[in-house]
Every structure is written in C-alpha cells, then in structure tokens.
Amino acid sequence: MAGVAVFLPRVRFKRATRQGLAWTTEALFPNYLFARFDWHHSLRQVQAARGVSGVVHFGERWPVIEAAVIEDLQRAVGTDELHILAAELSPGDVVEIADGAMRGLSAVVSRLMPSRERVAVLMDFLGRQTTIEVSMQSLIKEGDVRAAAFQAPDKSSS
Fold first, then answer.
1. Is 135 within 8 Å of 99 (Cβ atoms)?
2. Beta strand 82-84 pairing with 10-17
C-alpha cells in the first residue's frame, strides 16, 4: 500500500511441545502491528486493507507513537524485524527437561559447558540425586511463560 510504512516485530524461540522442542515465531505484540501513514488522507484505505480488523483509537482520538520509540524498538529487535530469544541459564536455576527420555522432569543447573552446548543438571531420579548432562536446547527455565505450552492435560477432570 503506497504511503504506508509497516513494522511487525517478531520473536523466535524454542517452545516445548508434546513431540519435543520446536522453533516457533510469534508477533511481539500479538494481533498488532505498527503502521506509519497520514491518517487524515489514508485512514479509510488502511482500515479497508486485507487482514486489518481495525486501527487502534480511543473514541475520536487516534494515538501517535513517537518515532523515537519505534526506532528504539527496531534497534532492539533488529533489521529483520525478528529477535531470537535464547534462554540464559546459570548454576542454581530450576529447569524443566523438555526433550528426550527425561522430558517433563525438573532439575537444577549445576554446571554449564558452553563449548559443548551442554548443561549438567542435578535431579531426583529413582529416589536419589543424580547428575546428568543434557543439551542446553532441551531445557526450559522455570518461570518461562513458554513452558505453559508443554503442560500435560489434566486427566482427573474428565
């Protein structure tokens, strides 16, 4: 659409699924994008564009986001409008194993091995504490909102 500049910041991250870890890409602000246009002349054209359900407004007031705010966001996300989120782990972090035979079990990070992209974790297994090595990519840090996608369905509510 001529005269309309669009910015759709997205994030890419690994999400735990029932089949293991999978890369996913989502909008940073789901169901929203930023568009720069002269609303006096182009508002109806933008509202009628394919995929647009509406332009944010508050009564008769159309909010304007300062260019500096968008520029800061563009710098943070990057020129591809895609920011890759990597989980940063530290010894002592509580994690959930999201892939492999130990999937779904909780553990505590005991040692990082960045050169091998592995982590030593301490976990309770068969009644005793055991240290195992797992891939960094197989762990989800406790408190990460992406972990909710891995929750098993509650069979007791059937």
1. yes
2. parallel
* Alpha-carbon gap, residue 153 to 148, rounded angstroms: 11
Are 130 and 123 in contact by the 8 Å Cβ rule? The answer is yes
Q: Each residue's pLDDT tens digit in the chain (158 positions)?
A: 788 999 999 888 777 677 766 778 888 888 999 999 998 899 999 999 998 999 999 998 889 999 999 998 888 888 787 776 666 788 898 888 887 778 888 999 998 887 677 888 999 877 888 898 888 777 888 765 444 444 444 444 44
Q: What is the token pair recorded at 107?
A: 């553990």
**Number of compact structural domains in the chain:** 2
- Is residue 94 within 8 A of residue 110, CB to CB? The reply is no
**With contact defined as beta carbons under 8 Å apart, do 109 and 95 qualify?**
yes
Which residue among 53, 84, 115 closes a domain?
84
- Is the domain of 9 the same as that of 80? yes
Q: How far apart are CA 73 and CA 75, in angstroms?
A: 5
CATH number at residue 103: 2.30.30.30
Is 61 inside any structural domain? yes
